[in-house]
């Protein structure tokens, strides 16, 4: 079974940083666009960032632009989300998702996702 495993979540103070990782098991991420999504209690899932299979295209939600950076290391079969300047409103469960696509740009819409991770909790609080 194809799996994505997120890690790196935790409790951090406002203004702090975390780096989330999304590691693939039993498949290679090189053929997939990867997106990060988040969902806070009582809210809808929100697309946060994505990176194309080539790594040449990235996209960010307006709420995280300038603070979050997505990257991928295909040799390690892992995608990262560096989160700086964290705010309490960033508190949520964060999920990575893989969509098989070897061309084009990625999207923050969770359409046609092939594999979802189980999530990692990020809590921003003093």
pLDDT < 50 stretches? none
- Kindly report the average pLDDT value: 95
* Subunit arrangement of the protein: single chain
Structural class: mainly beta
Biggest sheet character? 7 strands, mixed
Beta-strand percentage? over 45%
* String of helices and strands: EEEEEEEEEEE
Helical run tally: 0
| Gyration radius over CA | 13 Å
Distance between the first and last residues' Cα: 39 Å
How is this structure best summarized?
The protein is mainly β.
Could you please describe the fold and organization of this structure?
The chain has 126 residues and is an all-beta fold. 0% of the residues lie in helices and 48% in strands. The protein contains no helices and eleven strands. Strands 2, 4, 5, 6, 9, 10 and 11 form a seven-stranded mixed sheet that branches. A four-stranded antiparallel sheet has the order 1-3-8-7, with no helix packed on it. The termini are far apart. The model has no long low-confidence stretch (mean pLDDT 95).
Helices and strands, with pairings:
Elements: E1 3-7, E2 10-12, E3 18-25, E4 32-39, E5 46-51, E6 58-60, E7 68-73, E8 78-83, E9 92-100, E10 115-116, E11 120-124
Parallel strand pairs: 2-11
Antiparallel strand pairs: 1-3, 3-8, 4-5, 4-9, 5-6, 7-8, 9-10, 9-11
